[in-house]
Amino acid sequence: MDSNLEKISLFISKHHVMSMATTNNAELSVCSLFYAYDADKLCFVVASSDETLHVKHVLQNSAVAGNILLETDEVGRIQGLQFRAVMQEVHDDALKKLYFKTFPYALVMLPKLWQIKVNYFKLTDNRLGFGKKIIYSPV
Prior knowledge:
about 140 residues, alpha+beta, Pnp Oxidase, Chain A, 3 helices, globular
């Protein structure tokens, strides 16, 4: 695995909530989502209802953007990940298993699962130097 991708995957593994923005080209929405992450497939798995505004947006425009951050007052410890992706319903049984392994209590609710397939990462990590950015794009 690429060393930059390893740093990004390690950061992702230390967290479990993301903020994600969507649009239907007329209005914007942002939400917070619990996630499971598959580093090999470069995708997050989230649960969300068809009734949510962000899913309604995704059904019209599958492009999404999001972030995960370490909340800190210490400038030298600031870390945050931004990403761009495409979101679609999960059809991969391995991804479903990953989500329910991560959040076993969710199984009783039988939520609809969504895959967020990442096409761009930017990790800011001030521990590596002020404003240090690590960019990774699988293409």
